[in-house]
Amino acid sequence: MENLKISSKDIAYNLVHLPQLVFEVTDACNLRCKYCGYADLYEGYDKRENLKFPFHKAKLLIDYLHVLWQENECGGVVEPVSIGFYGGEPLLNVPFIEEVIAYLEGLPPVGKKFHYNMTTNAMLLDKYMDFLVEKEFRLLISLDGDKEGQGYRVDAAGRNSFDRVFANICLLRDRYPEYFDKFVMFNSVLHNKNSVESIFHFIKNTFGKEPSISPLNNSGIRKDKVEEFQRTYRNYAQSIREATNCEALKTEMFIKEPGTKLLLDYIYNESGNVYYTFNHLLNSSKHLSYSPPTGTCTPFSKKMFVTVKGRILQCERINHEFALGYISDKGVELDWDKAAQQHNGYVFRYERQCRSCAHRKACSQCVYQIDDIQEETTKCNSYCSDKQAEQMNTYCMAYLDRHPELYRRILKEVVVRG
């Protein structure tokens, strides 16, 4: 499997075709969410110091990428690039966002079309919504349902943020209804103060949107906070089973419901009619039958995330110690060979486990979400034996027998994008 290790050429290719660049605009936040990935339940991130991303460093990175894009421009081809603004709370540093967008839009064309997105707690949405609408931001609003569900999203004084957030969202919807319908989505965290049912129905019935609902991240928990985490955590599938009308909720949620999502993955991976690239479609499968260990993204194949302190990572979910590069005051320090070596070093330590894993061709496990990755005897969280896979396949077929309508819905309604 040596030939599957990536090289500096792969890093270069991904940078040339980078689909998303995300800035950690600030590490400051106007809320103190108990379960935040940067709060005291977790470790593995830089200390929060109320910093703001300096524009001159963003300019250095944009110029670095622009040179690559210019050198590799293909006439007549325009690729979309999503520019993301993350936090902390990004609306606490709007001047930076405005500067970045103005600079991007003033650059000579290089075959890229820039789009903007943001994850926000909506506390300052009333102040900046005109600008967000003007630039057609794809807006992901963090809302955990009704007021009780929002109970962990509190301000510095411990006050529930729901009233202010809800009012701001309603204002945006009423003032810009077309924008709201097209560009606004919701993200919710599941915990012991809400439920999948309460979140889903509140947001869908109030705003006509189906939220993305995620349980608490169970990676990187501080050892002294495990019990507190367990008290706060709520299992996603169990919460659905406890719904007032479980089957009706499952039907509404469709592929967001775990059983249907599992069936979708089964059809996707076992149908033999799914191709990851045109190379897979046009070439004989025998030449493309191997896949690299784990489901870890190749660096910058999906995004680049830059922390407020200038660390360059593959995404915002990765421990900051695994940074691949850095933006200094002098420029971008990103050694492509070292980045490739670091990726290979962590990914291929699971090679032996991957060889005997039944899910090796459809793995979604990111190695950076394995807490003991630094240990000599580290074990993959998602390892699946042949027996376990057989049991899972049997479950999927039995589930389909009970819900035959799902096969038609999956084929007709689901669009899979790479």
Q: Number of DSSP helices?
A: 16
Class from helix and strand fractions? alpha/beta
Strand order of the largest sheet: 6-5-4-3-2-1-7-8-9-10
Describe the largest sheet: 10 strands, mixed
What is the H-and-E element order? HEHEHEHEHHEHEHHHHHEEEEHHHH
Q: Could you state the oligomeric state of the chains shown?
A: single chain
Rg measurement, Å: 22 Å
CATH superfamily grouping: Aldolase class I
CATH topology value: TIM Barrel
Give a brief rundown of this model.
With 418 residues, this protein is α/β, with parallel strands linked by helices. It has helices at 8-16, 55-71, 94-105, 125-134, 162-175, 177-183, 196-207, 226-232, 236-241, 246-253, 258-270, 278-282, 336-347, 351-355, 386-402, 405-413; strands spanning 20-24, 79-86, 112-120, 138-142, 184-190, 212-215, 304-306, 311-313, 325-327, 332-333. It contains 16 helices and ten strands.
How would you describe this structure in keywords?
ten-stranded mixed beta sheet; globular; alpha/beta; 10 strands; TIM Barrel; 16 helices; 418 residues; 12% strand
Q: Can you describe what's shown?
A:
The protein is α/β, with parallel strands linked by helices and 418 residues long. The chain has a single domain, classed as Aldolase class I (TIM Barrel), CATH 3.20.20. 39% of the residues lie in helices and 12% in strands. The chain is built from 16 helices and ten strands. It has a ten-stranded mixed beta sheet.
